[in-house]
Amino acid sequence: MAPPPPTAAHVSQPVIDSFAAAAQAPDTATQPIAVVSERLPWRHTFISLKVRNFRIFAIGHFVAVIALWMQRIAQDWLVLQLSGSVTAVGITVALQFMPSLFLGPWGGMLADRFAKRKILILCQSAAALLAAALAVLALSQRIEVWHVYAIALALGLVTVVDQPARQVFVNELVGPQYMRNAISVNSTTFQLGGLIGPALAGVLLTAVGAGWAFAANAVACCSTVATLLLLRKNELHLSAPAPRRKGMLREGFRYALAKPTIYWPWLMAGFVAVFAMSLPVLLAAFADHVYDAGAGGYGLLNAMVALGALAGAIASARRRNLQLRSVVLGAGMYGLMLCLSALAPSMVWFSAAMVLSGFWCLMFLTAANQMVQTSSNMSIRGRVMSLYLVVLIGGQAIGGPMMGWLAEHLNPHLAIFISGGVPALAAVTVAVVLARRGELTLRLKFTQRSRFPRKVLSLSVNSKVQS
């Protein structure tokens, strides 16, 4: 059985009230966001892992994420070696994410209408077959660039259905009390896998080639299916499937636009996705053309990003308040770190900048994801998350080839400066717009020190839009 909710020492009554309000509010209402008002003790940083179903899911997900990162790194490096073109790497990224750009809302509609667990089992089975096909082609030395393109496109079609269901399934595993924490645990798992996966991929690419990385991902996808089958269905927090009716996609779109806590994270995710989420493409250019570090160096740079992202995921799990300013600040700082990396004089300094970039990228992504999910009703959450993923994943389909072209035809330093500069400028612009509307305000606070009474002026940004 799922553990009882945290005691009053850890979750305040407004949090409990907000969960009840969210469950009862109609689709057109703006619901309050569940905010943990006290900082959790360290032993409760990942409290959602107390839930048996989520713990099993997280273990399987961790193994799968390591293998997924291995496949991503191996796939990008293989295309670079076969074609000699960074633009070709960008095209691979685009083909993998392009289906989400056009078909994402239909994937969300499926997540609202059908059982999420069954959807994930089918999607992971298909992903295993695709990874196995890549492995056979690579190990038999018959693989060509068009093979990678075709399988990347097929995997993108699987992602269209898999990602919205996966996002919503977290709530079914842990219930509303632990949803925010579970989202952070998922991010931590993904980034810890991203720390280990690229390092293992670098070793495999150097030692035996890309084929074994693809084979490992095929096995990992099968292990994910096994963990899904092990879940206790009677302990899932199931929601009634949405009945099929006309205008379901339009309803989700109107719902998202009507809520500031969905619309603004959605907008910021667009700028970040198009310009700054294709970082592996740029890292391939830096590893190959700037530092001549080879496959091992490419894996190392990706691991540095994942190291910072892991720290960001842990920090987000302990975040006290969930506010719109967290989204804007995270996007702005991520862009700023990428701009600073363009000025790095050596690979050591560039790696350090990648750690900071990974940290702020995860702070933004978890804040945006949590805000969008906790701002939407369960009956429409699949469609809302699919629209968010259309922007986040589909934006990479546009940004991958664009950033690859910039890195190849201009230079990698200018490309990564543009990659960070546009989201940073967008964050400043959004902050100014919100401030002018009164949704983001400056607050002057006087505090008094103990022993030496004096007034100290502190400056903070307070977001009024929380729901």
From TrEMBL:
CDD domains: MFS_MefA_like
Membrane topology, as annotated: Multi-pass membrane protein
InterPro entries: MFS_dom, MFS_trans_sf, TM_effector
Cellular component, GO annotation: plasma membrane
Stretches that traverse the bilayer: 53-71, 77-98, 119-139, 145-161, 182-205, 211-231, 263-286, 298-317, 324-343, 349-367, 387-407, 413-435
Gene Ontology molecular function, alphabetical: transmembrane transporter activity
Domain Major facilitator superfamily (MFS) profile intervals: 53-438
Main location: membrane
Keywords from the named record: Cell membrane, Membrane, Transmembrane, Transmembrane helix, Transport
Gene3D superfamilies: MFS general substrate transporter like domains
Subcellular location: Cell membrane
Coiled coil: none
UniProt-listed Pfam families: MFS_3 (PF05977)
Protein name: MFS transporter
